[in-house]
Design a protein that fits this description.
The protein is an all-alpha fold. The protein contains 4 helices and 2 strands. Helix content is about 30%, strand content about 5%.
């Protein structure tokens, strides 16, 4: 048993009028006025939903441009460890050790461990091997 929607064009227009009413009405009062005028069921929530979907467009204040964030506590970079000349395990790897694997894929997994070039994960020797340009 389906009921037809109470939201006729006339009801929508009357809702727009009530939304512009001065002093502003709350949605309970709007629903009561809609029911008394149209003799149909208009709930507070149906008035809210209709107003949000099809209601008058309120002009929003334009947002001011945001100022850049200033970090008060800069993240301190970890001090670089002394140059490691041997192989290191995965637990010993950090941002200051070369991550080039030096074992054949069998445990224990070991890595180069030398100091990498700035911004890269590998030392100079392994950068030459890993980052090739052009043909093969």
């Amino acid at each position: 048993m389906s009921e037809t929607s109470p939201w006729t064009d006339e009801a929508k227009a009357y809702l727009d009028e009530l939304l512009q009413h001065q002093p502003p009405l709350n949605y309970d009062a709007i629903a009561d006025r809609m029911v008394s005028k149209f003799h149909r069921v208009f709930t507070k929530n149906s008035c809210i939903s209709r107003a949000r979907r099809n209601g008058p467009k309120k002009e929003r204040a334009k947002n001011k441009p945001r100022e850049p964030k200033i970090y008060r506590h800069p993240v301190a970079e970890k001090p670089r460890p002394k140059v490691v000349t041997g192989k290191v395990t995965i637990d010993q790897l950090d941002n200051h050790t070369c991550r080039w694997p030096v074992t054949d894929g069998l445990p224990p997994y070991l890595y180069c461990g030398l100091v990498p070039l700035d911004g890269l994960p590998y030392c100079a020797e392994h950068c030459r091997k890993g980052y090739t340009s052009g043909g093969r």
